[in-house]
Please model this.
Amino acid sequence: MFLSETYRKIATDGIWNNNIVFGQNLALCPLLAVTGTATNGLGMGLATLVVIIASNGLISVTRHLIPSEIRIPIFVLLIAALVTLVDILMNAWAHELYKVLGLFIALIVTNCALLGRAEAFASKQPVKHALWDGLMMGLGFLLVLVALGAAREISASGTLFANASVLLGESFRFLEVTVIPNYKGFLLMALPPGGFIMLAFLIVGKRLIDQKIAERKERKVSVTVLTAATAEE
Model:
């Protein structure tokens, strides 16, 4: 069953066109701080995904009950409550990952992307659209976290999803891969400057892809116009 145009647009905006990192340039602090490895990026991405879906849904459900004059403080309060719940659950069920991510779990509350989606979308849309938007925005953010973490980890140590079984549980052991055996390592990529450098490469890559897509669309339009003109003659 194909998605409707509305759901497709929400999906493409969340994952690509209006991606939290690439499109909105938000959440860069946790992005750069926790992406030393793909495992850390995956853990942080999953936590943020849960919070943004839940906050979008909760705010959409209560949007008619929230006075517009105090909506922002209420949005922050709801998001803070959800983050606290996720923080407690991660401490209980993924304690090793919780110790690695540390303060950055609580700082999800200050992630401008969550408040931005609450204000710009969830507070104005029905629940099913708000939940879908939260899922797509969260997935887009998660994919960037994992991609950046994977690129930094491979270039820094030659591994991928190292210690996934320790941080996420034994069921994630299959993710652990040694990409470059006997690799000496590139320390810079494991340090904060490496995060900035690798993020710049990812942003450039996305913009090049967007440019290629735009050029392809222009060629298709030109061919269509030319064909129509030829047919008229």
